[in-house]
Amino acid sequence: KDWVKNIGDFSKRVEEELDQKQKKRQIKTVSKFIFDSHSEFIKFHLDFIEEVIRKEKKLDMVFYFRHVPLPNILSRDDIERLKPFLPRIKWTIISKNASSLDNWCAKYWKGLGIKVKLGKDIPTNTMLIIMNDYLMHIYLPRKSVEEWDKMFLVKNVDKVDLNKITEIILEKKYKTTITITKDKDIISLLK
Question: Of 112 and 62, which is predicted with more confidence?
């Protein structure tokens, strides 16, 4: 659980950088975290969203993913936790694929006011998230990506294997590694 210990240091650096923003200085920071499961990364990401909104009052967030995130990656508590922040988030999900499951997931996110684009070129083979001036690269094991791709091939959404989704997201079988960079110049190239 080194990432738990490192979050405190990372949060302090982010806070200092957000305070430095008033000095009009571009600060570049790179931090790396390894999570034992994808669900641990999701919890970290929700905390990071809250932290950025608290400091910057708004959030311009773009997800570049192979597939539209499944609605059940967030618990009801997570969704309730996010709802007060949604009016301050300009959120777009851009998916490389447009399968029937991607379309089904897109309807859910659109219902929360999130813009979703399907079947688009994305600048990554897994996941990339832009949050204001922060760039988050999410690296997944090849086997995890293969399992996600296979799951999204279903023609009928009723045939989705919920046990497989749980295994991929919650179990410690697949680690999630991320790097976070604060770099306005790089982000301007991606938008």
Answer: 62
